[in-house]
Amino acid sequence: MQTSFSLAQLADPDVAExxxxxxxxxxxxxxxxxxxxxxxxxxxxxxxxxxIYLIKDMLxxxxxxxxxxxxHIDRCLSCxxxxxxxxxxxxxxxxxxxxxxxIEETYRRPIGDRLLRALLAWLMPRPRLFRxxxxxxxxxxxxxxxxxxxxxxxxxxxxxxxPGKIPPHPSEQGRVSLAQGERTARVALLTGCVAPxxxxxxxxxxxxxxNRHGIEVVSVAGEGCCGSLAxxxxxxxxxxxxxRANVDAWxxxxxxxxxxxxLVTASGCGTTIKDYGFMLRNDPAYAExxxxxxxxxxxxxxxxxxxxxxxVAGHPALNVAYHAACSLAxxxxxxxxxxxxxxxxxxxxxxxxxxxxxxxxxGTYNILQPELAGQLRDRKIRNIERIKPDVIAxxxxxxxxxxxxxxxxxxxxxxxxxxxxxxxxVPAVLERRISTETPL
Length: 440
Description:
Strand order of the largest sheet: 1-3-2-4-5
CATH architecture of the largest domain: 3-Layer(aba) Sandwich
Largest sheet: 5 strands, mixed
CATH class of the largest domain: Alpha Beta
CATH topology of the largest domain: Rossmann fold
């Protein structure tokens, strides 16, 4: 693709990066075949290629984002399936992230949209505050259909995602979980912000598995939200503030006692943390430290698949439908490891038809774009139910929450199954099924 940025524009490192990405695109259109919104809507502007043209025109002309540009960029899930499909290596993720930051700086959204986005960006990274609206949401959940009927689709979508109960919030920061037997490694485990509120059992299972296999686990004091929620809404100042705080916290822990890896159980967070080096590449105070953090970051499945697991007898040989979270499969290119990890633990892994298509979660997408997210969720669940699994495994809390709203099949994180297989407790959603004697 030919571009025509001025030398003055190219002096901006973000514009220079966008120019490099745009020039890599050869207009082939392979990306349209795997883009969820293009599959649903059939509009070229709702495909990666169409969005690339919109972004190019906006940036080259240095103009504020228009309503048309905002509409089509907002519909993008950032599932990054296009990056897996692209034969030319177009780094769409960095391009659309830059476009979102430009939109946030130059476009004035309607007041309702602004308030909703500000609320999500403020509440969700703060676990203790995030619990409060969820508790009210449990009471309001039965009214979701009524709210949808009167046009409050965003509120109905939020209520649909609220779980039936909110587990107690564990206080984990600064906690060290010692290895059983001889210690072979020391790792940090990201506490996260949404997962500890909705599903604290995930990190608890990860800690048990790691400890059981000789790994010491620390939840580092001072870490917070990875920054991805704000980052994907174009709120770069907020996102980078969170990124720098995490880099400082993990760097201090590395200097204090050393870390062999920084492990993440929410793949959306992992994709962002692995990109810290890029995000802070132009900050001389942080560039080197951020690159080191990114180099240590691994998804929990990536780490466990490289180990020799020690399964024990006693759990059923369940058929597991593995849902490949987009942020893991497309964003991190971690594809085979989760399947290998589940297989090594004794489970029969089933492939989901159209497994490369997003479930519609995508961070806050299922709140901000509830209609499209609902269609993608329903499509995903139809494909899962075709293969009749005993359980669904997904490596991202957003996917777990999204899929669980539309099916009675239990949905768990893969590490919960591995924990069970290596001597841990039965995952709670499976225990409930077993206790009611519902056939698995």
